[in-house]
Each structure stands twice: as structure tokens, then as C-alpha cells.
Design brief:
It is a single chain. By secondary structure, the chain is an alpha+beta fold. It has one domain: Chorismate synthase, AroC fold. Helices cover 31% and strands 19% of the residues. The strands form 6 sheets. The protein has a 5-stranded antiparallel sheet with strand order 8-7-9-15-10. A 4-stranded antiparallel sheet has the order 1-2-6-3, with helices on one face. Strands 4-5 form a two-stranded antiparallel ribbon. A hairpin with a 2-residue loop joins strand 13 and strand 14. Helix 1 crosses helix 5 and helix 1 packs antiparallel against helix 11. The two termini are 35 Å apart. The structure holds ligand EPS. The site of ligand EPS has 14 residues, from loops.
Length: 392
């Protein structure tokens, strides 16, 4: 894989760190390219108090000189402002695990004698660095006119009506309101639902969609499981904290239909360009991009930290005990959209680099321009009989 990255850091520790390796040399990159998405990740109705404390801003300490990437690993840091209120404090132990969080599973795995040790690293605070790395990958993809965006399509039981809205329109409206939903009427209902859930001391999840436009055909591969772009995208999405499902295009809806109602017909225009009359495959066939927009839908569970508490067991006493509330979000779905975009950008930048090779943007640009496309001219067929030719 051309791209590798690591993140490190605890939710309430001094800060977060990341290293991204594999970016080519010569990519113009500023802190603002990253901060724009960091700000988007901090904005969204349904957040708890933490987002008022943090003001995430990137510090780049390696791999970018004079405004251009050098091809060396890029090192990134973000400070946790909240750390100053934890620094000098004796920290109360947590011994009652929250169902749905990593409290119990982390303690079983690592032998922790205090559950905060799981919480600190399992926290979605870590997504700050995924967004930072994703923003660099988006900057790389923009060099090839590839855009990655997202929006909320369902929050709790409120489903947006997007049937008559083009992808371009959905994306143009994704920042119109504080729940990132392009359907204004649904957005209002979502807002009301979050307000109610706060009163009820409960939490909410939902569904968001991430879309890549401008991706060339031919990225990924059908030849092996770990090179399939659909598998890589779904894996990346469910690796995000609280994501429990992901589908390509209308995957689950397609499952209930007949083949004739599902598959995207291939048509050719007078210039010899092949295209599709629909995109139910979500831009991927055989684990390879088709050239249509890549669409991934992601299901987020409601956050497991609930103000009302949940039935659990105090591991220190062995007695049934409801969970104790730790400050958290009521609904983080709108803020998860930039995180999903980031993971998609990372996977697609990786797949594009795999296809192009090269160590600098200068080398990659002409290779991109020469890629085979969806044109009859690009696809000469021999149309003659042949043999397998194996000597067995
Ligand atoms: C989180 C709990 C909350 C969220 C946090 C994720 O943090 P705190 O307990 O400090 O209020 O706000 O998200 C972030 C800090 C962030 O930057 O997104 C959790 O338990 O996952």
C-alpha cells in the first residue's frame, strides 16, 4: 500500500499525534487545507460540552518545506485544550463499564484495572487525526479533480427525502444546516429530535453517505480480496468509532430486487464514450472503480455514553450498578461526516497512487492524463478464438 499512517494520543491527554507516509513530493499543502476540515469536524448540533473547549488547529512538524511536501513522512500534532483541567487532578477510577463502549472489552484484552485506560484511546477524539490525514489526501486528490464529500441521509428515525436531488445538489447543500442534511425539511425534524433526546438524556445515531466524484475507472482490482476497492472502503468506514455498517451504492436495497432491476445498463454515445444509465453499484464493479461516482452509505450506532445511564455491573464490587455519566455527545452523526470523507479520501488516494506509481506530483500528472478511460478507443478487442494454453 503506498499510504501508511499512524495516530497516537489519549482523549484527555496533552495532545494527538499522527504520521502520514507515502505522500509524493511537490504537493502544495498549507495548514489551512487541514484546518478547514478540522473545523467542520467540530461543528454539528448534538455535541456535548467538549467542542466548546477545543479549538483544533494543526501543527505540521515534518515533511512539508516551503509550502510543498517533500516525499518524507509528514508529522502532525493537535493539542487537547481540555488537558489543563486533567493535568493536576486525581482521577476518579471508573469500574462500571458502559455497554457499547470499549470499557469492558478493552479491560478483558489488556488486563486494565481501571476502565478509563480503554476509554481514553477508544474515544472518537482520535478522529481528529484521521480528518487531518484525510484532508491531506483530499488535497492530493484535488490535483486530479477528484472531490470527496458527504452528507447525512438519516438521523434516528428521520429519513431525508433525497430521491429527486442529484448528488451535486446534495453536496452543494451539505453545509446548509447544523445536521449536514441536504433535505431542509428533514433537517428541521432531525434538529427537533436531537433536542428531545437531550431532554430524554438519551443518544442518537443514523446514516451518512460519502461520495467521490471525478474518480477515474480502473482503480482497485478484482484479483485478490485485499486489493478490492469495495472491501477497502467498507473496512475503512467501519473502523471509525461507532460505525456498525457500510454498504456500496444501494447494496442492501438491491438485495431484495431482481437482477434486471439492479444492474446499471451500459450505454454508448456518438463519441464512443461508455456510461451508465443508473449507479446502483455505487461506482464499483468487481472491486474496481467504474468512473461513476463512488457512493458509500455508513450506519452509526447511537453513542454509548448516556446521561440516563445503562444497566451494568460494578467490577470492583461485583454488584449490579448503572453506568456513571461521563460528559459526551448526544448525537455525533453530523460530525462523523467529515470523518467518513477522510477515510474515503485516504483509501482513494492510496488506490490512485497504486495505479500511478511515482514519487512526485510532477511524475504522476502525465501518468494520470494517460490513463485508459471508458471509451471504445481505449478498449480495442481482438475478437478471435483463443486457447488457455496451460501445459497440463
Ligand atoms: C467521546 C466523548 C466526548 C466527545 C469526544 C468523544 O469527549 P469528552 O468525554 O471529553 O466530553 O466529545 O469527542 C471528542 C473529544 C472529539 O474531539 O470529537 C467518546 O467517548 O468517544
Amino acid at each position: 500500500m503506498p499510504i501508511r499512517f499512524f495516530t497516537a494520543g489519549e482523549s484527555h491527554g496533552p495532545g494527538l499525534t499522527a504520521i502520514l507516509e507515502g505522500m509524493p513530493a511537490g504537493l502544495p499543502l498549507t495548514g489551512e487545507d487541514i484546518n478547514r476540515d478540522l473545523r467542520r469536524r467540530q461543528k454539528g448540533y448534538g455535541s456535548g460540552g467538549r467542542m466548546q473547549i477545543e479549538k483544533d488547529g494543526i501543527i505540521i512538524t515534518a515533511g512539508v518545506m516551503n509550502g510543498l511536501t517533500t516525499g518524507a513522512p509528514i508529522a502532525l500534532q493537535v493539542q487537547n485544550r481540555d488537558f489543563k483541567s486533567w493535568k493536576e487532578r486525581d482521577i476518579r477510577p471508573i469500574t462500571t463499564p458502559r455497554p457499547g463502549h470499549a470499557d469492558l472489552t478493552g479491560a478483558v484484552k489488556y488486563g486494565y484495572r481501571e476502565l478509563r485506560l480503554s476509554l481514553e484511546r477508544a474515544s472518537a477524539r482520535e478522529t481528529t487525526m484521521r480528518v487531518a490525514i484525510g484532508a491531506i489526501c483530499k488535497t492530493f486528490l484535488r490535483q486530479f479533480d477528484i472531490a470527496v464529500d458527504g452528507y447525512v441521509s438519516q438521523l434516528g428515525d428521520v429519513v431525508a427525502d433525497l430521491t429527486d436531488m442529484s448528488l451535486d445538489e446534495r453536496i452543494a447543500r451539505n453545509e446548509d444546516n447544523d445536521v449536514r442534511c441536504p433535505d431542509a425539511a428533514a433537517a428541521e425534524k432531525m434538529h427537533t429530535l436531537i433536542r428531545q433526546v437531550k431532554i430524554d438524556k438519551d443518544t442518537l445515531g443514523g446514516v451518512f453517505e460519502v461520495v467521490a466524484r471525478g474518480l477515474p475507472p480502473g482503480l482497485g482490482s478484482h484479483v485478490h480480496y485485499d486489493r478490492k476497492l469495495d472491501g477497502r472502503l467498507v473496512g475503512a468506514m467501519v473502523s471509525i468509532q461507532a460505525m456498525k455498517g457500510a454498504e456500496i451504492g444501494s447494496g442492501f436495497e438491491n438485495a431484495g430486487k431482481r437482477g434486471s432491476q439492479v444492474h446499471d445498463e451500459i450505454v454508448v454515445d456518438e463519441s464512443g464514450l461508455l456510461s451508465r444509465s443508473s449507479n446502483r453499484a455505487g461506482g464499483l464493479e468487481g472491486g474496481i472503480s467504474t468512473g461513476e461516482p463512488v457512493v458509500v452509505r455508513v450506519a452509526m450506532k447511537p453513542i454509548s455514553t448516556m446521561l440516563r445511564g445503562a444497566a451494568s455491573v460494578d467490577l470492583a464490587t461485583g454488584a449490579a450498578n448503572p453506568t456513571v455519566y461521563e460528559r459526551s455527545d448526544f448525537c455525533a452523526l453530523p460530525r462523523a461526516v467529515p470523518v467518513g470523507e477522510a477515510m474515503m479520501a485516504i483509501v482513494l488516494a492510496d488506490a490512485l497512487m497504486e495505479k500511478l506509481g511515482g514519487d512526485s506530483l510532477e511524475e504522476m500528472k502525465p501518468r494520470f492524463a494517460a490513463l485508459r478511460g471508458n471509451r471504445l478507443d481505449d478498449l480495442p478487442m481482438d475478437n478471435v478464438a483463443w486457447r488457455f494454453g496451460y501445459d497440463v
